[in-house]
Amino acid sequence: MPERLGELLRSGLDVKLHLLQHYAELARLLAREILDEEVVGLCGARYSRDKPLEGRYRRWGSNPGSIRIGSERVPIEVPRVREVEADRERSLESYQQMKQPLEMDQRLEEAILLGLSQRDYGRVASAFLDGFGLSQSSVSRAFQERSRRALEAFEQRSLAEEDFVALWIDGKHLAGVQLVICLGLTIDGRKLPLGFVETTTENTGAIKGLLQDLIGRGLDFGEGLLCVIDGSKGLYKAVREVFGTCAEVQRCQWHKRENVVSYLPRQDQASYRRKLQRAYQKVDYGEAKAALMEIHAELEQVNRSAARSLLEGLEETLTLHRLGLFEQLGKSLKTTNCIWTRNASERTSTASSRSTSVV
């Protein structure tokens, strides 16, 4: 066998390319060679009178079996060995090693996360024409285990080494589940997912638990945090009760704008959306508030519900203006949209991965 391989490796390019195209068969040949070596070690060479181990074992035909080659389960004929005196079959150690269950590697995990469904796995990942691949249940179990370990590492990692200056906290629907997600902004401009809890944005207790867990993992808020949230009363209460006066709350301007226009007839929504947008884009706090109050006075004559919606929490939508930071930080910190952007790809990936039963 080694001599034959040496000859092949010394061959020309066309032969090597042919070998590359048929590497599956070469791997199968090597597997059979390994099995035969173990059988010879137990039973001796075929037709030889010289039997090792005092003739304890003898050949006993073969059975169809399978082994792992790369990420595939490939069929192969497996020789059988019988222990004469005990009248029982003796399993081959090399065969047991070659058929070990596959630990799903990173490529398969990434493929699922990027939108590859189980039904497509065999078509996309199959390397052998006659291989029969991984079952959906195998992929599901492997992915669930890797996901569980990754989630534990995510929820237990320390935050003590990071210097956070702002948090985005918002509720989102992901794969049919309502989550409250917290994203952090470090002083050097990095956005880091910090944690999430399965609950509604009105559940103050659950959100407090999420924030207190972040503190327990090392989140330092002593020098103050800017917390960007939507209009949920439960979120606001949780932030105030956990961070107290160390938190400045910036209400999401996008949520405020959409809440206001939702009370208006469809034909008027685009016009007021533009008016609100222009008012919030003013850098000076006084000018922005004056423009918003003009819109409020106008809405009082058009739709009192829309006017009340604009006035509710208005000051908190202008926190960055009041702090004199809107021109520098308004683009990134005036809304919770960065959580929406991050969730867009996750929602697509989760939808295509739900058949793995990991959600």
Concise account of the structure shown:
With 359 residues, the chain is of the alpha/beta class. It folds into four domains: 2-100, no CATH class; 101-156, no CATH class; 159-251 and 335-359, Nucleotidyltransferase, domain 5; 253-332, no CATH class. It contains 17 helices and eight strands.
Average residue pLDDT: 81
Structural class by secondary-structure content: alpha/beta
> Structurally, how many domains make up the residues?
4
Distance between the termini: 49 Å
The top level CATH class name of the largest domain: Alpha Beta
Tell me the CATH superfamily of the largest domain: Ribonuclease H-like superfamily/Ribonuclease H
Strand line-up in the sheet with most strands: 6-5-4-7-8
Helix content: 40-55%
Order of helices and strands: HHHEEEHHHHEEEHEHEHHHHHHHH
Strand content: 15-25%
Largest sheet: 5 strands, mixed
- Work out the helix count: 17
Backbone shape? elongated
CA radius of gyration: 32 Å
CATH topology of the largest domain: Nucleotidyltransferase, domain 5
CATH architectural category of the largest domain: 2-Layer Sandwich
β-strand number: 8
Question: Uncertain spans, ≥5 residues at pLDDT below 50?
Answer: 123-129, 343-359
Keywords:
5-stranded mixed beta sheet, 53% helix, alpha/beta, single chain
What does this structure look like?
It is a single chain. With 359 residues, the chain is α/β, with parallel strands linked by helices. It folds into four domains: 2-100, no CATH class; 101-156, no CATH class; 159-251 and 335-359, Ribonuclease H-like superfamily/Ribonuclease H (Nucleotidyltransferase, domain 5, 2-Layer Sandwich), CATH 3.30.420.10; 253-332, no CATH class. It is 53% helix and 19% strand. The protein has 17 helices and eight strands. The chain has a five-stranded mixed β-sheet with strand order 6-5-4-7-8, sandwiched between helices. Strand 1 and strand 2 form a beta hairpin. Helix 8 runs parallel beside helix 9. It is elongated and about 105 Å long. It starts with a helix and ends in a 6-residue tail after the last helix. Mean pLDDT is 81; it is low at 123-129 and 343-359.
